[in-house]
Amino acid sequence: MRLLWRLAGVKGRARHPFSGTSGAPMSTTVDAAASVPTSTFDQLGLSAPILNAVTDAGYDTPTPIQAGAIPLLLAGHDIIGQARTGTGKTAAFALPMLDAIDLSERAVQGLILTPTRELAVQIAEAMESYARHRPGLTILPVYGGASMMGQLHALRRGVHVVVGTPGRVLDHLRRQSLRLDKVQALVLDEADEMLRMGFIDDVETILEATPTERRTALFSATMPRAIETVARKHLREPQSVTIESHHRTTIEQRFIRLRYPEKFFALDRLLRASDHEGVLVFAQRRADTEEIAQKLCELGHRAQALNGDLGQQQRELVLHRLRERQLDVVVGTDVAARGLDVDHLSLVVNYDLPFDVDTYTHRVGRTGRAGREGLAVSLVSNRQMAFIRQVERQMKVSVKPMQVPSAADVEHRAAEIHAARLREILVAKSPELSPHYNLVKALVDEGFHMTEVAAAASLLAAGDTLKPPTLADLNPIAPSSHRNSGGNKKSRSSRHRGRSKGRGSRSSKSSRGPRASKSASDPRASKSAGDERNERKDRKTSGRLATRKTRKKVSHRKGQSPPRDRD
Ligand SMILES: Nc1ncnc2c1ncn2[C@@H]1O[C@H](COP(=O)(O)OP(=O)(O)OP(=O)(O)O)[C@@H](O)[C@H]1O
């Protein structure tokens, strides 16, 4: 694995010169760059069991955020950690927390709050692996939509670390099933998103239930100014660890300029022309994620939607299938934008643009993780070009134009895939070929050349999979606001059902398990009480967001801020 951060210029700098509570000294800034060239995990002050787990995870060198943050957290400082997406912030806060747990005391000593359920599960799993050489250390993910009974049971037995979403953690606090009076280390992961989602009141109530002498850390790839208020109020003399790269990121960012009706066509072409195995497509509305995923399935892509309308079990299943490579494409709302770490995810498509550059940053950061290469493509109208320029300015990157892949590009790729499948059969010398030898021989005896017979057989096997649908073949996905009762018309794209690039197409894919069906893109798990509560919260949140979005649209009209998503 190529780790680009070894090459990247990094520096620590003061971003958050907050004073602590009661006029304490200004925060110190750590020059992470100074520690990077020399630091190894051994030098950070971690104990042997944690170091062994780090070795097991295959980490050779600490990333800059780890080199900067771990010694400070071990020394008991509060910190604000900011580093690009996919650069190991989880281990930066998790390793020192796990190191400090006193196993003789069966009480919650570490608490991590995250904005999404998926992230809570992912972080808890990462922590399990980092704690594998500290037997008896227990970690519990606590989030809405999951069985309350299971969580109550685990909490009664006692756990050392809780990783949770604010809503469910608060639920447990109110039921008195969770006590936080022994918490020594607290992390607000993706702190800015929790703020943005309106969780701040819940977070503050939770903080009040923890001892004031705890260590507190805020982590995110983006730290808007609003986070200062939270830090000033809840952190004591925080140290800032900000890692900045002056070199290129590992994410290549592109845009395709098009009209709205061309969007779905462009997406299909992007998927067909590339050999990306894990693709995350972002749409703004839940209903659109369903429709896009369904139409992609009709075209033979293995796709599924991921949004807040799905039951929690279903959401987890979608991510599980993506991780297991049983799916190629997940079409999600921003519920999938934060923190998700799927290592083979190599393409992110902004089918719709987000409303702000921070969200864009997190979306594209789902690819190019841990130094791997990734591509992010945004589908934009002329009017949305201002947003791309804003991204370039704010992220200090270049976002270059690209064309919708041509039919020739797609045919070339499809031919490669087809050839790979034929090659696989030839190499395997499958016994199933036997009857076909006689058949070919008979045709050759009739006077056809061997090559002609092979070409005809190849044509028969490929069907029309080598020819991609044209723009005219595909029914565009209408903006939600344009949809009406006429929306039930049979899609012309159904003509292409089964004309997939992927029907067992890629040699390695044929063994990847069942293909997603139309119904697979739209399943609903039965909703638990927890789900309902969370959905109420979702609705409350989306109400708040809607108000904010309306405000942003207004400010954009004044020429200040992000574009409207729809033409
Ligand atoms: N020192 C290391 N060496 C190699 N890989 C690492 C190292 N530290 C973490 N990783 C891997 O890097 C990937 C990204 O880490 P992580 O999810 O913690 O990133 P992040 O900075 O929190 O990203 P985001 O801002 O998107 O949440 C993970 O797969 C993790 O296992």
TrEMBL record:
Keyword line: ATP-binding, Cytoplasm, Helicase, Hydrolase, Nucleotide-binding, Stress response
The protein's name: RNA helicase
Domain DEAD-box RNA helicase Q, residue spans: 39-67
GO cellular component, one term: cytosol
The Helicase ATP-binding domain, residue ranges: 70-241
GO terms, molecular function: ATP binding; hydrolase activity; nucleic acid binding; RNA helicase activity
Native organism: Lujinxingia litoralis
Enzyme Commission designation: 3.6.4.13
Gene3D superfamilies: P-loop containing nucleotide triphosphate hydrolases
Region named Disordered: 471-567
Ranges annotated as biased composition (Low complexity): 507-520
Intervals of motif Q motif: 39-67
